Amino acid sequence: MVIVKWLLYFAGLFVVLVGIPLCLLLSLQGIACREEPIAGPLTAVAVVVYSYWLAPDYKRLMAVCGFLIGAAGSYWFLNAEWYPQCHALAYQQTRLSLQLTLTTGLVTQLLLHWWHNKNRRLLR
Questions:
Q1: Cβ neighbours for 2, distance < 8 A, ≥ 6 positions apart
Q2: Which of 62, 71, 102, 104 could share a disulfide with 55, CB 3.0–4.6 Å?
Q3: What is the average pLDDT across 79-86?
Q4: Can you give the residue range of the structural domain that contains 41?
């Protein structure tokens, strides 16, 4: 039964890692000039919070692992990014989306650890 819980957890983590950015990028298309600076940080928050709340055990460790997996994925997807044609700095390379995503994930991670330590008695 424990193995099934962990398999479901990792399947859900994959869905969060892939599904949320795709849905955000598709829904923001045409609304914003660049979708990545919005979709990346929201995905980082979702991955860290999902990893903490829905992990069967070792919640803080799983939140750190979720952050690291998300950081590796965001580095892979957002490392070589260029400003779009609709931007004033068109066709210049940027790492703004990567920096925003990693910073938001790290801040979420720190806030989650602070909240966990503050409410430790309630979680037992």
A1: 56
A2: 62
A3: 70
A4: 2-123
User: 11 vs 25, 37, 61, CA distance in Å?
Assistant: 21, 26, 18
pTM of the complete model = 0.84
pLDDT in the model for residue 85: 67
**Residue 85, helix vs strand vs coil:** coil
- Rounded to an integer, what distance in angstroms lies between the CA atom of residue 58 and that of residue 100? 27
Burial class (CB in 10 A: 0-12, 13-18, 19+), 88: exposed
95 or 50, higher pLDDT: 50
For the chain, the domain total comes to 1
Arithmetic mean of pLDDT, 109-115: 93
DSSP, residue by residue, 17-70: HHHHHHHHHHHHBTTBS-SHHHHHHHHHHHHHHHHHHS-SS-HHHHHHHHHHHH
Tokens representing residue 39 in the block? 């979709």
Report, as an integer, the average pLDDT of 28-51.
Answer: 84
| Residues of the chain by 3-state class (helix, strand, coil), percent to 5 | 75, 5, 20
